[in-house]
């Protein structure tokens, strides 16, 4: 089955700097890659996703890039703000069929003022 | 639209006791998922329903966990008997047919002592 590895497990950046979180997946058939943000004690919320027919997708300060050949994808957050502090999870699945998301282990991002 | 509702929010039980969690998905969402999130880890799928049928329960510890989705709407997840290692947040999520992203509920935090 699918296996998703996420790095780093913790990341600390200065406010205003950029943050990058990377994930690799094992199943080359996977074609849907969402990112979730989970604040302390709250539900995971979808912040951005990408399908395998595109290489990059942007939404204001966040972007996701996908390298299908290498089977890895990354989350980029620019001009970080204190409210970006949270745990971020990547996930992978097939769009077709059951669409069962397999999650990475999570990255705790801390933005230092 | 209303979100995914879960109850209770918190539960503390002794090992070997039983416990049940309830989930009400977003209206019209045919697919419902139960995930287990152990502290410091990513969510792990326990069971997936499509309407009232089970799509995937390969990672559900069936000797102690059971789940049902009556009439294809609400779902209940039960643990009997509970073990210390069952301490986790149990997340319910739902997805609309034809859409990719999940919407998660706020979860039930279970502590087994």
Write structural notes for this entry.
The complex is a heterodimer of chains A (113) and B (113). Chain A has strands at 4-7, 10-14, 19-25, 32-38, 45-51, 56-59, 62-67, 72-77, 86-92, 102-103, 107-112. Chain A is built from no helices and eleven strands. Chain B has 113 residues and is mainly β. In chain B, 0% of the residues lie in helices and 49% in strands. Chain B has strands spanning 5-7, 10-13, 19-24, 31-37, 44-50, 53-56, 65-68, 75-79, 88-95, 103-104, 108-112. In chain B, strand 9 (88-95) and strand 10 (103-104) form a beta hairpin. Chain B is globular. The termini of chain B are far apart.
Present the secondary structure layout:
The complex is a heterodimer of chains A (113) and B (113).
Chain A: E1 4-7, E2 10-14, E3 19-25, E4 32-38, E5 45-51, E6 56-59, E7 62-67, E8 72-77, E9 86-92, E10 102-103, E11 107-112
Parallel strand pairs in A: 2-11
Antiparallel strand pairs in A: 1-3, 3-8, 4-5, 4-9, 6-7, 7-8, 9-10, 9-11
Chain B: E1 5-7, E2 10-13, E3 19-24, E4 31-37, E5 44-50, E6 53-56, E7 65-68, E8 75-79, E9 88-95, E10 103-104, E11 108-112
Parallel strand pairs in B: 2-11
Antiparallel strand pairs in B: 1-3, 3-8, 4-5, 4-9, 5-6, 7-8, 9-10, 9-11
Keywords, please?
heterodimer; A: about 110 residues; mainly beta; six-stranded mixed beta sheet; five-stranded antiparallel beta sheet; about 0% helix; globular; B: about 110 residues; four-stranded antiparallel beta sheet
Q: Give the overall silhouette of chain A.
A: globular
Terminal residue distance of chain B = 37 Å
Which structural class fits the helix and strand makeup of chain B? mainly beta
User: Main β-sheet of chain A: number of strands, strand sense, barrel status?
Assistant: 6 strands, mixed
| Radius of gyration of chain A from CA coordinates | 14 Å
Gyration radius of chain B (Cα, Å) is: 13 Å
Oligomer: heterodimer
The arrangement of helices and strands of chain A along the chain is EEEEEEEEEEE
Number of helices of chain A: 0
Give helix % range of chain B: under 10%
Helix content of chain A: under 10%
Beta-strand portion of chain B reads over 45%
Mean of the pLDDT scores of chain B? 94
């Amino acid at each position: 089955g699918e296996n998703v590895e996420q790095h780093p497990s913790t990341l600390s950046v200065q406010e205003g700097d950029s943050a990058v979180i990377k994930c690799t997946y094992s199943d080359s058939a996977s074609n849907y890659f969402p990112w979730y943000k989970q604040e302390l004690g709250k539900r995971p919320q979808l912040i951005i996703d990408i399908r395998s027919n595109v290489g990059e997708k942007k939404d204001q300060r966040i972007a996701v890039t996908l390298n299908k050949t290498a089977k890895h994808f990354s989350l980029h957050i620019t001009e970080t703000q204190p409210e970006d502090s949270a745990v971020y999870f990547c996930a992978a699945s097939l769009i077709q069929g059951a669409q069962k998301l397999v999650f990475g282990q999570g990255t705790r991002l801390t933005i230092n003022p | 639209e209303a979100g995914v509702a879960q109850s209770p929010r918190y539960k503390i039980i002794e090992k070997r006791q039983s416990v049940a969690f309830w989930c009400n998905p977003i209206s019209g969402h045919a697919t419902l998922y139960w995930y287990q999130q152990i502290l410091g880890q990513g969510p792990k799928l326990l069971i997936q329903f499509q309407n009232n049928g089970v799509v995937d329960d390969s990672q559900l510890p069936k000797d102690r966990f059971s789940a049902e989705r009556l009439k294809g709407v609400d779902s209940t997840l039960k643990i009997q008997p509970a073990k210390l290692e069952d301490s986790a947040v149990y997340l319910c999520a739902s997805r609309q047919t034809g859409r990719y992203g999940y919407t998660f509920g706020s979860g039930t935090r279970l502590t087994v002592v």
